[in-house]
Amino acid sequence: MSTRAQTLILFGATGDLSQRMLLPSLCALDAEDLLGEELQIVGTARSQLSDGEFRNFARAAIEKYLPAERRGSMAGFINRLSYSQLDVTTPEGYKELADKVGPDRQVATFLSTAPSLFKPTIEGLAAHGLAADNARICLEKPLGTDLESSCAINDAVAAAYPEDRIFRIDHYLGKETVQNLIALRFANILFEPLWNAQHIEHVQITVAETVGLESRVDFYDGAGALRDMVQNHMLQLLALVAMEPPGSFEAGAVRDEKVKVLRALRGLTDEESVTGQYKGGASSGEIVPGYAEELGRMSTTETFVALKAHIDNWRWQGVPFYLRTGKRLPERVTEIIVHFRNVPHSIFPGARLCPNKLVIGIQPEENITLSLMAKVPGIEHEGMTLREVPLNIAMPDAFTGKHKRIAYERLLLDLINGDQTLFVRRDEVEAQWQWIDAIRAGWEESGKTPKPYNAGSWGPSAAIALAERDGVSWHE
Ligand code: BG6
Questions:
Q1: What is the pLDDT of residues 51-84, one digit of tens each?
Q2: pTM of the model
Q3: Could you give the domains of the chain?
């Protein structure tokens, strides 16, 4: 493992992500003595703040977003913090930042700012020696809006940092159950022999949200569900489900396997995608406005997308991967369902045998359930009655005493330690964009516009038909 960072610079330190996720995550790591004694954290943003004011800001954010039992004493963490005011688009300010960091420090920089600011920021850092030696850079999404803009961002970053020092965040990879998927597949002998087209009939990945636009009107309307959720989080989940066993749990090995899957994604036909946009309705017991009302104008941005994807390789030939995500759906749930094939021959006449299903619940509950057929207790005249029963590993029960972590805790610690395994490599991002761009081009060509759906429903009926045409029902 490479050397630990001694200074972490947070760009966008007074922003929403920093407040809700980064500062609370860092404090939680500190409370468990995971940050190491030496680490200093320098926040930077446009607002004029003293060190003391930034520390007060951080304290308030932690008290709001981190449960009291995870905060530790906080005093030690707050003492690590300092602040340097900086307008990233002007050369002034970087000198003060460099002075604050001090000479000969191992630096990691986290950019949680608009991607349009990445280039000037990186130039400023490089000109002041803050990108030199083993300095690392961490980038938050969105990394572009298509392949071309993503390449431009990646090129700007590559001008100052080699790929092995670039950490692209996909916060889904920091989620405990997403990592557990890797453990489930590769620390057990049980699944691997069955993990292929011969034994798996299809896979479903759902990322459903109950929220609407929140306060992200401009960003979201320029993105839509496909680019906001599928391009990154859902394709990463798909890659982890579908990849070949890597030779080791190391950054290069894992990412080599993921990128092969992403490159093997087949282009979609027009019938293989459905888009939707929510109308007003009832969501989580409340009457909520439609997307256009929230936005204040009409729009053709999709807030829901359902896809039928295929991976063109030997392992997955003929196995559809149904993906769906949307805002204002009936519940917040992220899950992966691996649907096995039925037994080749039934010896139970009259019994309906349900194929085995592995349900990997990612959120809100971390749960892994394997549904199996079992005999219903009792004596029958003939044969036996069978029923599907769940074999349930509820993670919180299996690991009592372990608290739920913020996904950023894992990722920030890996950034500080220099471990890229759970970060996305440039070739992965580009393969993801290539597939997404082709879908969008197809929509444009066929003039596809989102179908309306009621807030609080599971999306347009066409999404149900997309699966039902193949005799598949979405798992609900
Ligand atoms: C973000 C998207 O990347 O992920 C948001 O931009 C979305 O639109 C969020 O709400 C979902 O993350 P999580 O961790 O709440 O599932």
A1: 999 999 999 999 999 999 999 989 999 999 999 9
A2: 0.95
A3: 7-140 (3.40.50.720), 173-468 (3.30.360.10)
